[in-house]
């Protein structure tokens, strides 16, 4: 599941590891405790390439919870709050940037 | 409509059961993602930014009201209450959970629809003219031949692992609504000098990273030789197409690298060896497929019944009629296009309620039949002209009578970065903002036919290369930028657009498009000269000078 192209990644600031949850595709972040969270505030943050690769490798062990893990940039505000680091990640956090036409599904 | 038999229904039920088992094994860990991914893709299941996406084929763009109603049901029960009609005669559901997918697929299979051939390196869902069988002047109903290709290509063992995906489109009318020149294989159905039915065969068209207009390799292929000739093309491609580089694996690269003439020679040599074999289509086989297409029981009707004549006194109806209704091959009937582009809405989206409404209207006024076009609109192919006023009133009440078909607001856009894992930039919000700038539909009608196509990445799902105005989103230093091309077209005169100049930022795009259109309005030779013809006459330079002086 690890993204091979990221094995030589450059890290120029805080990053985390993100993926999609297997069961429903919902965006998740790797936590410091070695699990996955749907809240970016709980994401493990690293700042060097070796740390990022180690975090990615830990997320790519054959646990069956998340799909397509990769390293993604984050921004840290003055009070330490974690936010997505680029537009793609902002959309993954907040959803499409326009009003959706439908309603929530009935099925669980 | 095509009538499926027990074989089709059993096959689909077995396929759903197989996928249900694969999902169970994925969820319990027996399959890892590397093992599961090709299996889900063979059923049209992608993992996008926020969720799994199910892409469902609508073969040759023909749907029954019953099928559309079931799609509305799937949207309502398993998704977020809407579906997205794509540029390839598919519908996509954007938010389905993995463990709900087998149930959703089972419900779709009950009405004969599925995601097979909507993904993977196989022969994809064969597309054609959404007006097939209804429009005047056709040489034959192209859906007959699309269905023959569908049956031939579905799970074809030799062509399940091609170098890359493979797209075939067919047109049978003088005006190409299927964009055949930008497909891997384009088929133009026509008759030769002695009246025999056959195909002009084009290969190597396509958009994406390396766009090409297809080359004609055979001006006339007798229709009954269709499968053997397609098989010869597939074999040459399968043998010589590159597999070492995904970006150079499409047939267009092979045709470009060895030349259309050499490619044609290789195909003809292969064809000579197989043309008289099992793939030769007998009259009986063709007749059997043809007999499974059931056509409406048309009545002998007037072209201008009293209800219609009276309604034409209403300017709103008259405007909708002029914009959305086309002549039918049968007197007294019309082809109606339903715009899925209300100003400011995501292009191609339809809510479950709208799908149900359209299904009801199809049952009431259109022999229960709906069509899907690559322009991301729907059609009712056969509506009695006496019923047009009532149909319009009901469409209008459902927000489905926007009279902007083929106008500047009728924008084709891929899902872009708002949904798609491959995209670099957004497409839908750009389309929404441009549409709002031209919200005055009287003004839009004054501009005339103008196709804007927007893609959120180089893969070109929004067909930007062949937009009269093409817009390609790219990412530079973490920001969205957009390259603009002018003069592309996807019809029988297909050509790729010419780059206007440097890419502009997200915020600049709507204003730039306004300036391009304003420049056209000043430069067009007559009020009847279309935008694309003005660009063809003058080139992009006059537009470039005006537009970049202002930005």
From TrEMBL, chain A:
InterPro entries: DUF2849
Protein name: DUF2849 domain-containing protein
TrEMBL record, chain B:
GO CC annotations on file: sulfite reductase complex (NADPH)
Keywords recorded for this protein, A-Z: 4Fe-4S, Iron, Iron-sulfur, Metal-binding, Oxidoreductase
Obligatory cofactor(s): [4Fe-4S] cluster; siroheme
Superkingdom as given in the UniProt entry: Bacteria
Keyword Metal-binding included in the entry's annotation: yes
Organism encoding this protein: Ancylobacter pratisalsi
Domain Nitrite/sulphite reductase 4Fe-4S: 119-272, 410-547
GO molecular function: 4 iron, 4 sulfur cluster binding; heme binding; metal ion binding; sulfite reductase (ferredoxin) activity; sulfite reductase activity
Family annotation (Pfam families): NIR_SIR (PF01077), NIR_SIR_ferr (PF03460)
Annotated Nitrite/Sulfite reductase ferredoxin-like domain residues: 52-111, 344-398
The protein, known as: Nitrite/sulfite reductase
One Gene Ontology term from the biological process aspect of the record: sulfate assimilation
InterPro entries membership: NiRdtase/SiRdtase_haem-b_fer, Nit/Sulf_reduc_fer-like_dom_sf, NO2/SO3_Rdtase_4Fe4S_dom, NO2/SO3_Rdtase_4Fe4S_prot, NO2/SO3_Rdtase_4Fe4S_sf
